[in-house]
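Intended use. Records like the one below are meant for learning the mapping from a protein sequence to its folded structure. Do not use them to infer anything beyond what is encoded.
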Amino acid sequence: MAFRTDTPLVLDGGLSNQLAAAGHDLSDHLWSARLLRDDPSAIIAAHRAYYEAGADIATTASYQASFQGFGDETPELLRLSVRLARQASYQAEVDDRRLWVAASVGPYGAVLADGSEYHGRYGLSRHELIDFHAPRIELLAAAGPDVLALETIPDLDEAEALVSIIAGTGIPAWLSFSIDGPCTRAGQPLAEAFELVRAVPEIVAVGVNCCDPLDATAAVPLAAAVSGKPVVVYPNSGEGWDPVARSWDGRRTFDPSAVRNWLRDGATIVGGCCQLGPADIADIAARL
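Structure written out for the chain above:
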C-alpha cells in the first residue's frame, strides 16, 4: 500500500530521549545512530514504544548516520535502520491499524555534531550537498521504507539540494524545516521554503520540526497555503539545546491542545521531536 496523507497520521516522538530514558549513553558524536551498530534491540524497543503509544509512523535511527561517521559500515547500518523499524511494527501490540516506516534523512549539520543543524550555512555548495545526501538517500530508499523524512533542514540551500535529488524519482518524501519564528534557521522567509516543493509530486507533505511549539503553530497554515500540500508538524518540547553541554535546558512549552489547531490549519502528519516521548504521543493520538 502506498503511503497516504489524506487522513491524519500520528508520528512518533524523539528517538534519542526515548533511548536515553531506557538508560543508553548518547553522549558521543554518533548520537542515537551509534546504537544501530552497538545495540539494535534498543532501537526496536524504542520504535515499539511509540507504536504502542499510538504512533502510526516510526522514524528510523538514520538521522545522524553517514559515511563520515561510520565509514564502510554505513550502507549496512542505513539498511538496518529501516529493517529495525519494520521489525518493531511487526512486534508492536496495537489495534488493527496500518503502521508506517519513515526513513530519516537528517541535515548535513547533524554529522558535524556541533549544533550546526540549528543554523545552517555550512559553506558548502549545492553540488557538495548533493554529493553528501544522494548516496544516503539511495541506500535508504532501496531498503524499502514507506516514505523518506527529509527533516530538520535549516536553510534553502540544503532544501534545494534535497529536492533536486528526490524530484523525478517517484519516491515519496516529506520535507520539514528547522525554523526560528517566521524564518528558516538560516534566516530565509518560510514562504520561500514552502514554495520550493509546490511543483514536486514526490514531496507528499511539507512543514516544520524540532522547533518551538509556538513557531510550529504559526508555520502550519503558511505551509498549507504556500505549498498547496498536506503539512507535517512535529515540534520539540520548547526547551533549548546547548551544543556545548550537549543537553536540553529551559522551560517546556509544548501543549498538546495545539493539535486541534494544526489539524484545522492543514496538518495531516502530527507528532513530536526532541524531548517529547511516548506519553506525549499518546496524548496527541487521543486528540486525533
